[in-house]
């Protein structure tokens, strides 16, 4: 069910509020109606496509607060998504120990459950290859309020994707796959499915991207392992569907390299009604 109306904003405000409060999608104008109907039809088509596809269910995870990047990467690693080798450091001495244990070059990032877009505040330093650069990065991050930093090995070059799962107010749990990195929102090349979903359904998603050729070795680039990518998508979708306290979990970027897919950043947001706060990585 959905409601579509058009007219002066003052005339439809109260109706919109009533519909939204009741969980009924509300759109205005003929274009909005056409897009909403197309979305409902596509959702119905995908839900009806069961066949022999086996839905990938997720494991239940104990709810808690404090999902910074390090903790969230542990979580996504649990569903088979590779993550870089990394260490957490609260002191310069710990940072030096991490440097000795990891392979350079390194990424040094602010570690905070409240910072969602680290690069926007100067919270990411890349290509750190010596102790002088490490100290400079550590001091710079402390200056912007970092109590801890995440030091991790950098991944080789590749194609950056965004893979995530979230609770849509209209369609409920969904998964998304798109071209990722810092320009993901500007590009908007995204494919969406309902969650949880099957490996077969997830395997079809890459072919619907406008930039799908980037995943097929474009100009000598890496070729994506579609089975591996589908496992990433179904893993996140199953995790969201199985844990009501998760509102959103996202890997951006998931870098496709010649050595496989690796999660360079991960964010988890908990549902506000569960604990009264909105926890962002």
Structure description:
This protein is α+β, with helices and mostly antiparallel strands and 281 residues long. It folds into three domains: 46 residues, no CATH class; 69 residues, ATP-grasp fold, A domain (Dna Ligase, domain 1, 2-Layer Sandwich); 117 residues, D-amino Acid Aminotransferase, Chain A, domain 1 (2-Layer Sandwich), CATH 3.30.470. The strands form three sheets. Strands 7, 8, 9, 10, 11 and 12 form a six-stranded antiparallel sheet that branches. The chain has a four-stranded antiparallel sheet with strand order 3-6-4-5, covered by helices on one side. It has a two-stranded parallel sheet with strand order 1-2. Helix 4 crosses helix 5. The protein is globular.
What would the keywords be for this entry?
D-amino Acid Aminotransferase, Chain A, domain 1, 3 domains, alpha+beta, Dna Ligase, domain 1, six-stranded antiparallel β-sheet, disordered C terminus, single chain, four-stranded antiparallel β-sheet, 12 strands, 25% strand, 9 helices, 281 residues
What is the secondary structure topology, with strand pairs?
Blueprint: E1 3-5, H1 9-21, E2 26-28, H2 29-48, H3 69-77, E3 86-89, H4 92-101, E4 106-110, E5 124-128, H5 131-143, E6 149-153, E7 159-168, E8 172-179, H6 184-187, E9 190-194, H7 199-204, H8 226-242, E10 246-257, E11 260-263, E12 266-270, H9 272-275
Parallel strand pairs: 1-2
Antiparallel strand pairs: 3-6, 4-5, 4-6, 7-8, 7-10, 8-9, 10-11, 10-12
Helix pairs in contact: 4-5
């Amino acid at each position: 069910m959905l409601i579509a109306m058009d007219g002066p904003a003052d005339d439809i405000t109260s109706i919109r509020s009533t519909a939204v409060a009741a969980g009924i999608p509300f759109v205005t104008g003929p274009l909005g109606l056409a897009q909403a109907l197309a979305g409902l039809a596509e959702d119905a088509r995908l839900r009806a496509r069961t066949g022999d596809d086996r839905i990938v269910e997720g494991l239940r995870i104990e709810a808690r607060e404090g999902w910074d990047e390090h903790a969230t990467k542990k979580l996504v690693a649990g569903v088979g998504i590779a993550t870089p080798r990394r260490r957490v450091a609260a002191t310069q001495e710990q940072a030096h120990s991490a440097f000795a244990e990891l392979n350079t070059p390194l990424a040094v990032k602010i570690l905070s459950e409240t910072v969602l877009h680290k690069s926007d505040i100067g919270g990411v330093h890349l290509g750190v290859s010596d102790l002088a650069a490490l100290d400079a990065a550590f001091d710079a991050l402390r200056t912007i309020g970092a109590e801890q930093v995440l030091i991790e090995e950098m991944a080789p070059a590749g194609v950056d994707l965004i893979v995530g799962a979230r609770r849509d107010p209209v369609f409920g749990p969904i998964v998304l796959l798109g071209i990722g990195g810092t320009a993901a929102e500007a590009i908007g090349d995204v494919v969406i499915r309902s969650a949880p979903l099957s490996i077969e359904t997830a395997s079809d998603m890459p072919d619907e991207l406008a930039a799908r050729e980037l995943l097929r070795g474009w100009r000598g680039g890496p070729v994506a392992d579609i089975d591996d990518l589908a496992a990433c998508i179904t893993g996140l979708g199953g995790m969201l569907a199985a844990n009501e306290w998760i509102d959103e979990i996202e890997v951006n970027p998931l870098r496709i390299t010649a050595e496989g897919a690796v999660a360079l950043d991960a964010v988890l947001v908990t549902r506000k009604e569960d604990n009264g706060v909105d926890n962002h990585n």
